[in-house]
Amino acid sequence: MTWALHTIDHIIAEKHGGATAADNLALACTLCNSRKGSDLASIDEQTGFIEPLYHPRRDRWSDHFQLAGGRIEPRTAMGRATTRLLHFNNTDPVQELELLVAIGSIREPTA
Asked: CA–CA distance from 23 to each of 12, 19, 26, 55, 92 (Å)?
């Protein structure tokens, strides 16, 4: 079971000139959104180059990622940078639960 809620995310943050308009908004996992912050790019550990993050309104998901055995596997430098920054395959359910309790999205589970 996943506890992750979703939030509306500015794909390009307002501080970088992103508008609050449908073409710049996306539904994002709360944890991914908190990891992304206002970032537009990250480092591809394979090449060491700065790569733009995946843009859900401009980029085609299947060009940059594939599902393999329950994991999201990157296909490109953009995919690798995005996967690493957002921790697509490293979600820790305990930390996720603690975050949701801390922001008041759910009540702390009782034994």
From this structure: 10, 8, 8, 11, 31
Rounded Cα gap, residues 44 and 92, in angstroms: 22
Give Cα separations from 39 to 2, 3, 47, 49, 66 (angstroms): 25, 24, 19, 15, 23
Per-residue pLDDT of the chain (111 residues; tens, 9 = 90+): 455 578 899 999 999 999 999 999 998 888 888 899 999 999 999 999 999 999 999 999 999 999 887 788 999 999 999 999 998 887 665 566 566 667 776 665 443
C-beta of residue 6 within 8 angstroms of C-beta of residue 29: yes
Q: Are 98 and 108 in contact (CB under 8 A)?
A: no
φ/ψ of residue 93, rounded to 5:
-55, -30
Residue 62 CB coordination number (10 Å): 9
H/E stretch holding 41: strand 41-43
